[in-house]
## 1
Amino acid sequence: MKNQTSILNELLATLEVAYSNAKGRHWMVYGTPFRSLHLLLDDTAATLRKGADKMAETIRVLDGIPLHTMTQFVDSSQIEEALTIPDALTIAREMRDDLNEIVAMTHGGVDAKVFDPTTENDVLNITSEIRHWILFFDGIISNWTPAIPRIPEF
């Protein structure tokens, strides 16, 4: 079974890749929903960056060493790097799916009681903010797909 710090590092890596995806997609948006999606991706990227920072600080408080290179993030992330430039609807769907994966990972860890109470509070605060942005992506794609908590392989 993985320890709490290992799970937090996996979440950190996934947050960092999601941040990179959000920022890259932000730069590539084109078409009719340009302004709304461009700004939504920028706001989402800021939330992900803040969440990653909190995650890394939490790892340090627990006397762990946070992952800190893009190679480490990509290797440990539960989502893939966005390597294509799709249309706006696909961008919104892929970003929503990335965010849902973070929520599912986190809530699966909570369900498995992996986190101490303070850490659990911290990670749930991050997913609460992320779920706010998921609503906006769902509005763009006119499709509600909730995150299903999954128990990570610990």
Note: The mean pLDDT is 91.
## 2
Amino acid sequence: MSHPIHQASENSPYGDLTREEFYKKHQIFHQHNFMLNHKGMNIFTQSWRLDCTTSHLKGLVAMVHGYNSESSWLSELSAIAIAKAGFLVCALDLQGHGYSDGLPGHIPRIEPIVTDCVQFFDTMKSNYPKLPAFLYGESLGGAISMLVCLAQKGEWDGLILSGSMCGISSKFKPIWPLEKLLPVAALFAPTWRIVVSKPLASRSYREEWKRRLVAKNPNRRRFGKPPAATALEFLRVCEYVRRHCHEIDVPLLMVHGEDDTVCDSNSARFVHESVASKDKTLKIFPGMWHMLIGEPKENVELVFGTILSWLGNKAAKAKTGVVNPSLSLEVHL
């Protein structure tokens, strides 16, 4: 497997090609649209698959991006990698991110975001009812994916969590006493950003050139630190996940960088130990940071080789109806 990130440059995820030329090179059929959500907001959606008959699709993968990200640019390269492995991949821009409506970076409540995901992913699944369906979430998107699973029990064939926000690292939390003042700040100044957290981007992508690439996204909403109400909501979501993750009962793969200073790897261990899933795997990668696509080439290949192998295996079993749960496993590579 060769992840498309290796063809990117610090100026463009498509290297020297246009986006359309990049799709053609990788034989990718791409669609995008806007979905009107329950609040009347325009939510940007898109999908990728190999440009051939849909009868050979192995499954559907619904991707949820993280905070201060979007479904395009670098996230799109992972979508293409999964699509090239034979899957239909779909994703949306969260409210306040990418091309979607919303105040940039402002997520005072997570429930409307979860509702958007359910609405779009249900539509995609209804169009391909015979395909096994998997959720894939990165960072905040991992927490959202868990919330989707909890809201739709029995409706997903598997869950992949990459650097998931199961708990916020103490190295990333606001300094005392600012964390204690968050409820007051969220109530009286919900969009206040100055108190909330340490810088995110510099501790997410290990390779410097990828940080520069992220910063050059022409559509990126440079909202920086989460506002007070959003930061408080992140803490609430982490606590909710800790209290309810034992209800998750789907095949689960968790991949996490051991040196992740944004989302705590110990919280990932807690979730892995707590979920009801009999088929669950946790892989902690020594030396790796928060965004695993931001690692050097050999690390990216290791992580995404693991993800694609797991997806292919679970999709094949789901299609044939084979039930063969694996043991609970934590692996340090």
Note: Residues 4-320 form a domain with the Rossmann fold fold (CATH 3.40.50.1820).
## 3
Amino acid sequence: MTHHPLRAVDVLLVAAGGATGAVLRHLVDAGAPDSLLPWPTLAINVVGAFALGLLPVLAVVRRSRRVAAALGPGLLGGFTTVSAWAGETRHLAAEGHVGVAGAYLALTLAAGLSAAALGQHLARRPEPEEALG
């Protein structure tokens, strides 16, 4: 891994991306109906894992480490949330919903890892060759 000197603009780009991601996460949470299973956090984390795996397919991400940082650790880092997932799992278990907590834990892990792998797979696919005509 090549390390680049940290510059204030890099920190600001990641911060702006993180703030945007956090606002998007809040909007998803605020707009979701209440349910026993915290599906908004599940969906956020699965979509974020997929998007993070898919990021390298974007030419702008491949060309610019700053764009990659703003979108990866910035936007997607602010959007996804392990802390909310852990807190929700603990809360479910503490409220006596141990089975739901276990299922939520396993489902989030399995779906998140699968989504990230799918995103990475799609990012590595060769570009289709244009038909000769």
Note: Residues 8-124 form one domain.
## 4
Amino acid sequence: MKAVTHSPNAAASPASRWRLRGAAALMGAVLMTTSCWGTGSETPSSAPTIPSSPESSPPPTPPARLTTAWEVTVTGSGPLIGAHEGLVVAPDLATGGSKLRMLNWADGSEVWSVDISGDLTGFERPEKVSDMVSGQVALWAKTSQQRRSLFVYSTADGSLIGRLDEKPEHYLAMAASGAIYEMDTSNEGSVRISRAPSVKEAHTKQWSIDLPEEAREWFWVREHDGVTDFCVDGQAGPVHEYACYLSVHTDDGSPVVKDGVWHRSAWVGNVLVGHKENGPLKGFDQHGKELWTSELQDGYPLGWGDDLVYVTEGTHRSFVGLDPATGKELWRRDWDEGSFPGLVFDRTPSPQDGPLSVFVPSPSIRTGVLDPKTGQVDLVDHQITKAHDVIPTFGGALLIPTGDYYAPTWIALDPGKPGTLWDDVLKNYDTYATLGDRLMASKGDRIALLA
């Protein structure tokens, strides 16, 4: 069975109209678990605020042993959704599942179950919405014609809070706050983006903004520090499995940077770093003031606490450390295509969740941890071949299916360290997913929490 992969905050991963190139196969890929913003201390008002990573809180390390905390059997189970109040199990419509259930995080016992087959009549499959506001759980459902509807349920009793149908030439996204963002692409040459406070108030627009054609993307959003980033999944390239292309102020929708529709962008503290396609890399403060310009070749910026790392594209790959306040090059690490021949994925939401790890699967799996302040990385060859996917999990461990694609052998690695982790418990399941800081496993109708 194919692995369940983790994609931050993604409600869906549809194809883009013009910029989305389609993700390449993982074989020959590079994985870096990284972040796009940090939080921390203040600097004088004359300089942009660059929050620092807490030196007193080193990244966690994987536990030495992993066990099955609990296991339950849920007939007709589909996508698993990590809510604040418990584990929500959506129905698998293809096998006749009809119930939405919530299980207790402590022991897997059923808190409630509700038959939602009436809500999902005419739909083929539900898809989860991650990172929901407390008290709610949301599902996307698709028809055979790829029409989508959003269903939001109460975690108190499973009752339906609201439904929102996606209209033709309109795209919807739901933020972790419960806010609804809608993109109207019905007017040729421009798009209109609106924000509503919740699914129940979806027709109460707090603001609407008009943007040029290049903002036309199916998208997901993340809200942080008073701004909203618009991002798209599946963009090929050496850094992200997604790319962010627009940042606006959450309160009024005004773009952080005038004409700020990017090819790729990332936050490093309160500095927004991005570039137009084939354009120079630029840094801006949170008010849109340009701080610097760098003539680096095309690539991907990524932020890790107070560090800015830029990865260039092309056959000659360079990892470059930059000062986010000035754009000054601090260090450069060059690799040729034979050493690092594929993609780099951005999956970890904060520096405290794990190291900045590098994964090279071919010809055998090699892992290491990149020091974002120096560019130093030492790779360990694990002498394991045929990796199909990588799931970053707690403590910075990497969970990897190898061997037969349909009946894989699962291994877990601590990046940059020899040996494997947790071999005994992994053989009991065939699918894994990270939900927040929890690792879920399943096989058929069996669902387990690993701890």
Note: The first strand starts at residue 31 and ends at 32.
